[in-house]
Amino acid sequence: MTLSFHVRSNSFPSRQHPQATHVDEQLSRLRSSETASSSSICQRLSNLQDLHDSLDKMLRLSSTQQTLSQEQIEMILDGSIKILDLCNVSKDGLSQMKESLKEIESILRRKRGDISAEIKKYLASRKSLKKSFQKVLKNLKTGHRKNKESLAVFGEAEAVTVSLFESMFTFMSGTKSCGKWSLVSKMMSQNKAACEDEENEFRRVDLEFQSEKSLKIEDVQNLDSCIQDLEDGIESLSKSLIKYRVSILNI
């Protein structure tokens, strides 16, 4: 998904500033990175936090503030709100999932309780998260501009952020992944063994849920730890986005 802002090709002379060059380098790294594992997603979340911290500094430059039109400021502000919506939806959904996993872990440890009911709660929270995410994503697409001229750096930042969240939700859906060739591999039914090696924490537990007798407490704990890492990364990104939004409002 690509998001663009309707701006003039010469509308951002401040990109010659060292801070703008640093932002370009950060964007380049994010565009080239892949999200085949929970650790790579967490790393990209950290990189996104750094990117928005850099954008916050850029917004404080007088050259940036003098260049941006009121229309562009409002568009950047609107984009930041929608990205924050993605963060909030993600945090709420992950929190519900983690709560259900804690109950499942407790039942496995005590070896008593209605584990089927807790598994249903967990799967329901996953379904609810997917529905909420698709709603926010639809709002982002509705705001998409047809006029594709020069992409502003802020539009690029919004695009790579949305791309990461799409990758994260694909990962959380339990889809097998073989890097950026996962779809091709699936269609051609090739590299099956390689894909299985990259089976993520969500899919591993999903498969075990199909047969409760094979459910391992270690895998549930690993998934819980994975969700905690994602929560922490999204929370840190949210704080940077709030600072970023304040800077926009102060222009």
Protein architecture, described:
The protein is mainly α and 251 residues long. It contains ten helices and no strands. The protein has helices at 18-32, 38-59, 62-67, 70-110, 115-142, 153-172, 182-188, 192-197, 201-209, 217-249. It starts with 17 loop residues before the first helix and ends with a helix. Residues 1-11, 145-151 and 177-197 have low confidence and may be disordered.
Dominant shape: elongated
Low-confidence stretches: 1-11, 145-151, 177-197
Distance between the termini: 29 Å
Helix percent band: over 70%
Overall mean confidence score, pLDDT = 78
Sheet with most strands: none
Task: Supply the helix-strand structural class.
Answer: mainly alpha
| Number of E-type strands | 0
Alpha-carbon Rg, integer:
20 Å
Brief overview, please?
The protein has 251 residues and is mostly helical.
Task: Please render the helix and strand layout as text.
Elements: H1 18-32, H2 38-59, H3 62-67, H4 70-110, H5 115-142, H6 153-172, H7 182-188, H8 192-197, H9 201-209, H10 217-249
Helix pairs in contact: 1-2, 1-6, 2-6, 2-10, 4-5, 4-6, 4-10, 9-10
